[in-house]
Amino acid sequence: MLLVVATGASLVACGDVTPEKIARWKETERGPGKLRDAVKSSSLSPSLRAQALVALVELGMSADAIAELETRPSVDRAPVVHEAAPRLGQLAGTGADVTTTRVQREAKDAMFLLRADAAPADRDALDDLLIAWTCADLNGRMSLGGQSSDKILTAIGARATPRLIALLSTEGPNQQQAAAILAKIGDAPTRARAVDALVESAKKLQQRTRDVPDGLLQSIGVLGGPHATAYLVEVAERGSESLRERALFALAQGGAGLDSSALAAAERIAGDKKAPGKVREAAFQVAEKIGASAVPAMVRLMNDADETVRWRAVEAALAAGKDKAVAPVLEALSQSRPYKKEDLDSYVVHDLGLIGAGALEPLKGELKSKSWVARIVAVRGIAAVGKAEDAPAVAALESDGTKLKGFAGSATIGSEAKAAEQALRAKR
Q1: 206 burial via Cβ count (<10 Å: 0-12, 13-18, 19+)
Q2: Which is it for the CA torsion 199, 201, 204, 207, positive or negative?
């Protein structure tokens, strides 16, 4: 018996494969196996192999088709992708139908996965098809199929920006999704142009209705940049109560990328006694999102005449700076005021717990502070986030006889340190 070993992992003879047979194989039990063999057969024309690949996509076997193609060298894959691209584009369709079929979604996913093996011109063609498909209903199609529109458009990059910018002209979910993706893939000039267009639209709406839709504010905030900050700060300081609050929440999306004008506005509004409570709270949240650079501003607000503002400033500083804020916050706690144990626990120790183990080293440093408030908070903070091996650190203060203003009874730093040591040693 003569044993024939097929080269190129192909079990399909060149003369045995025709377009008609590929079409029939889609409907037979053994057809998928033959289609897979055809995809990886170097002896077949790229056109036939592409037809077999698309047939597998129609059967819901995109991953199998691409896996077979990827067994071949890159120089062998590119011609197949060239032939498959327009077929897949036709299969996927680009209309903004309310619903999409499984086959359309499979074709879209296949186009995305194949772009890595495409020649430059073919990759551009695939990208254009993918942009058209995803942006036909950006929000509605965002998570359809195995590859999200966010992932696809982010991978495509700058080529997708004109279509995304076009979506910014209509307020709604598509606008917000487009802004979020542009924030990732657009260069600074592109983002600035997009923001300017959105701000102009927002100003027109505000003149007409005295309001700006939340989605539009969020889109401006997520794109960020100096123009976005300037507009949102202006609205946060001069708009209606609801609009001010929402503008600040939109501003907070810029996070650590916000400039000094955003931080100055957050400090100014948070400390404004005439501002509504919800607006001031939103300003504190902006500071928290800015990060460590906001700590000095929040520390300054710890001297506010309003006790509620003082405690909120403590929380905001710790949330913004985390371990870097521990020492500045503890040192800024006034030594002339009495403190209830439950207040220190609720507004300081609790938030130190949110920082976690990272707070331990700066807390140990504060055990040596000249401030009695810093020392007692350090003791209680270490008891909250520390472990048994941290007990000796707080035990060093057991002889500290400083009385604690505001604590019940005759509590001292030493008595609190002893209780903290015992609690730490009990931890496992």
Answers
A1: middle
A2: negative
pLDDT for residue 421? 96
Which pair of structure tokens corresponds to residue 283?
Answer: 């300003």
Summarize the confidence of residues 14-19 as an average pLDDT: 77
CA distance 122 to 88: 12
Q: Would you call 403 helix, strand, or coil by DSSP? A: strand
**How far is CA 208 from each of CA 90, 121, 212, 350, 427, rounded to the nearest angstrom?**
44, 47, 10, 46, 63
Return d(Cα 48, Cα 53) in angstroms, integer. 9
Record the tokens describing residue 317, joined without a space: 């500083």
Query: Residue 99: what pLDDT?
Result: 84
CA distance 36 to 56: 8
| 354 φ, ψ (degrees, to nearest 5) | -70, -30
Which DSSP string do the residues of 256-267 spell out, in sequence order?
GG--HHHHHHHH
Q: What is the pLDDT of residues 377-414, one digit of tens each?
A: 999 999 999 999 999 999 999 999 999 999 988 999 99
Q: Cα separation of 300 and 203, whole Å?
A: 34
Q: Of 246, 175, 182, 245, which is closest to residue 214 (Cα–Cα)?
A: 246
Q: The tokens of 254 are what?
A: 């810029």
Strand partners, 403: 412
Q: What is the pTM of this model?
A: 0.82
CA dihedral 422, 424, 427, 428 (to 10 degrees): -120
